[in-house]
Amino acid sequence: MPTELEADLQREVFARLAAADGVYYLSELGDEAIHDWGRVHDYFHEFVLLDRSAGRITLIVAADD
């Protein structure tokens, strides 16, 4: 993995996951929640992270292709 990508993932994903008070997995959102290009990838995983101390809500969307 390129060093810059690894640093970005650490900062934007893994550090936020570690700091979160709550992690929620969004499932079965239905066809009305799919973007026009949503069928480009077959499988998505969507997580909502709540970090009360930072006053932040983060949406992480990952494709497993």
The percentage of residues in β strands lies in 25-35%
Please give the order of strands in the largest beta sheet: 1-2-3
Cα radius of gyration in angstroms: 14 Å
Tell me the quaternary state: single chain
Following the backbone from N to C, one meets helices and strands in this order, namely HEEE
**Low-confidence parts lasting 5 or more residues at pLDDT below 50?**
none
Key features of this structure:
single chain, alpha+beta, three-stranded antiparallel beta sheet, about 60 residues, 1 helix
What this model shows, in words?
- The protein is α+β, with helices and mostly antiparallel strands and about 60 residues long.
- The chain has one helix and three strands, in the order H-E-E-E.
- The protein has one helix at about 5-20, and strands at about 20-25, 45-50, 55-65.
- It has a three-stranded antiparallel β-sheet with strand order 1-2-3, with helices on one face.
- About 0% of the residues are buried.
- The mean pLDDT is about 85.
